[in-house]
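Hey, resending since the last one bounced:
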Amino acid sequence: MTSSFKEKVIIVTGGGGVLGGAIASGFAEMEGEVVILGRNLDTLSDKAREIHDQKSKVVHCLPCDVLDREQLEQVKKDIISRFGSIDILVNAAGGNRKGATIAPDQTFFDLDTDDFEKVADLNLMGTVLPCQVFGEVMAKNKKGVILNVSSMAADRVITRVMGYSASKAAVENFTKTLAVEMAHKFGEGIRVNAIAPGFFIADQNRELLTNRDGSFTDRGKTIIQNTPMGRFGEKEEVVGASLFLCSEAARFITGTVLAIDGGFSAFSGV
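The structure tokens again:
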């Protein structure tokens, strides 16, 4: 697998984030031509600089809103003009909003449906649109790999994060549907899979899981108690599974969601 990404053109949406950045770094280390996308060019540039400092590898940055088809189309033209093709798409863009969560002192009826809709758009449509725009190149070439990013919140009921959970569950269903559609219409050369990370501490959820002194909150403790490995994941631990699913070693795998969760999805809590 060490040479399987040489000369491959890899797009990572949300590449400036913790998990997206780790995946981008992994592909760069394996000699891939990596392009990271995100709304904030400064954030992308910081991530590219970090990867270069750590791995001595070049990562390209293009600002783009994954919910803006015109921007996506322009990015596609830029990438094709510069690199000639698009071989792999990793949809790591996503997130949550406060209004789409239910606080401990709230009920479902307090849910902000506007924020719920925005979260659904970001996680679901922010996956669908890049698949349409960049996947069209793969369809014409009859080869390519799409890797979506789901979450344990899609597989298990995780309290409070209702909007995020619902939209990630939709991402998993979409992944399977698109895998079938691509195989039927464009042949076995196009594969679509997803990873479902368990619990990783990032800026987005740090306050929910840890106190200022570094100790775990009650929610953090509950997660650890229900994770057989007894810890949170490290960002680098999403990389191996991502590289595998996008490699020739996984050429007969499509429509699969691979959990990276320390056994969380396998444990009943008893």
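Strands lie at 9-13, 33-38, 59-63, 88-91, 144-149, 190-197, 257-260.

Sorry for the duplicate.
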